[in-house]
């Protein structure tokens, strides 16, 4: 497998960054994950708009023009022969003597790109069965709108989910409402067929899959309510699912050990999963 690290393509086993990279020492960096389908990048322009915003919010310089990043990401996909999978991009503030405050402006951001094939059949199988989620108290910093590599709470949440036989963890804020998953946005479908997800103004990452799905719903005339919901409402909902670039629309069939609906992926969820890529931009 091949990676791109700061100007070079190399074998993944030799793909290293400096021990004084600020991503390594401070988690001082951002990332993006794009789905790869038919060896093409899904909704790449939107991911790059979000990347630019994350960088701007953290005052990290753009490492290169987006057109150059596109070439590198496609090349890593090509060299790894990924037809279905994900491509990962990470940009950190660069390498400098350890000091919390920003380094001099002469320090250039670090860029790493990797790509990985996923097992399409296995993913479809998971989607046919659905996943389980647990809920836990929100314990992340307030700037979760930035897609930063600072993911320790998410790591612990995912591990807790795994230990409880679940795949995803939904955070619940101090008002008792679900914010989002540790690596996905959270959705329910009410008994009268309305899709509900929290609005992007507070407490969540503005998911690209979420944004595209809002458009899909418009086209399919599925009613949408952007508002918070509680774990109790979710447990009583007709359907539930999560969205992310690597899962697209993934049905949720149990929340904290309680079955959602009839314990099978819901009909609207399935429809959304099937229709999703008709509305994607491929590049
Ligand atoms: N929320 C969090 C915390 C995430 O980590 C992710 C993706 O990994 C998402 C939401 C979904 O975002 P996207 O659809 O852009 O992958």
Automatic annotation (TrEMBL):
GO biological process: amino acid biosynthetic process; branched-chain amino acid biosynthetic process
EC number: 2.6.1.42
Biological source species: Nitrobacter vulgaris
GO molecular function annotations of the record: branched-chain-amino-acid transaminase activity
Pfam families attached to this UniProt entry: Aminotran_4
Family per similarity comment: Belongs to the class-IV pyridoxal-phosphate-dependent aminotransferase family.
Ranges in coiled-coil conformation: none
A Gene Ontology term for the protein's cellular component: cytosol
Protein's recorded name: Probable branched-chain-amino-acid aminotransferase
Top-level enzyme category: transferase
Pathway(s) annotated for this protein in UniProt: Amino-acid biosynthesis; L-isoleucine biosynthesis; L-isoleucine from 2-oxobutanoate: step 4/4; Amino-acid biosynthesis; L-valine biosynthesis; L-valine from pyruvate: step 4/4; Amino-acid biosynthesis; L-leucine biosynthesis; L-leucine from 3-methyl-2-oxobutanoate: step 4/4
